[in-house]
Structures are given as structure tokens and as C-alpha cells.
Design a protein that fits this description.
two-stranded parallel ribbon; 5-stranded parallel sheet; alpha/beta
Amino acid sequence: MQSEMAKHTLQEMYLRRGFPKKPYVLALLTFHMIGMEPGLSYLREIKKDSICLRMTAEDSLLNHLQPGELIKAAGSDHWIPLGRLSEAIMEEIDVIFLPVLSFSLVNDILTHNEQRPFVRLILEALLKGKKVVALKTGADPYEPFWKLKGMDKGTALFKRKLYQQLIQLKSMGIDLITENEEVDFMAKGNSKSVITEEAVRLVHQRNLSELEIQRGSIITPLARDLAKELNILLKFF
């Protein structure tokens, strides 16, 4: 087993050297009660010629889908078994991508449950300054996919609480994207986030009273004016 793991590690390092200009992305796949199609569809559409993409899955997901089914659904056979993600491989990873944000994964990230392998990988990446990107469909009850699944009947309070969790994830440094956004897999740089009036308007539409903003971000004058008009608190962290 050790020789196999060593062989796998060397193969990954060789591949990395073969694509020096491409971001090395590791997608972490888990199961979600509302389904995984948005995340799997996004994976199939990723321009794999511009990145070096590898995937891994939790055991709980493999209880629902056979490996062959998962490979077909994700459109890639570039998989690494979770147990073979050595330190050497993780050091080569530039970006961690979360195509599926399940309730349990969100909760475990926010409670820093390092006993869960996926969460440990995510926390380590964040603490080392690596980029972590997540498709927010599974954790945002306002996304159209929830209505499509007939799961948009929750109370306004429940939906706000779920959305607040997304804000907490963002405050940890996780980049959240929608299905229609093209993810930027370039490693973290010194570029500053720009807060526009659209961000303020979205918070107002969600019936929230504050917008958490990372220090150093640029807030446009229109965003400041609209926040004042709508009584939205711009809260820095």
C-alpha cells in the first residue's frame, strides 16, 4: 500500500511539473439531499484545458453513487482516492473547489470540525492562504434550483439563517459563486474586492440588515448611498 501511495504521489508531482502554468485544482465532492446536479454540471463545463483538475469524494457519496457513475456524471476520470491525498499532493494544490455545499458540510466548516477529512483540508488550505471556491447553490435557499426541487417553502426566518451561514463562509475567506459565474481558479493575489450597489440590493432583498465586508475592500459611492438609503449596515471584519 505504501509503495502504491508513493507511486501515486510521484505521478501527481510529475503531472504538476508538466503543467507549470496551470492552476492545480482539487474538487471535493460530497452528497446533498437536494441533489448534486448543479455541482456536477458545473464540473462538466469547466475549461479543463486551462487548469489541472483532480477530484476526490467522501465515502458517504460513494454510498449513493458507484465510482463509474460518479466519473460519468462529473465528466472526468482524474480522481484521487481520499485516503491517498498525501501531504506532498496537498502542497501542490493551488485551489480547492467545492461544487456541492451540503448542510452538513457548511455546518462542519463553520464549527471547524477537523475530524471530518474534507473540513480539515479546507481549513488547512484557508490557513495556508490557498484559494477555496464554492458553488453556493446547495446552501442558498434563494437559488432557483431549490424551487425546481419543490423545497422553497421554508419560513423566511429559516431562509435568512441559511443565508447568514453563507455570509459566515465568505468571512472565513471562501469565495462563493453562482452557476452562471465563471470561476477564477488563479491563486490568491493582492487584488481587492469591489462592493457595488448590486451587493447591497441583494442583501436588502434577502431581508438582512447588514453586509459583512472584508477589510481592504473597495466600496463604490453608489453602494454607500444605497446602504444608507436602505438602512443596511456595512460591517467590516
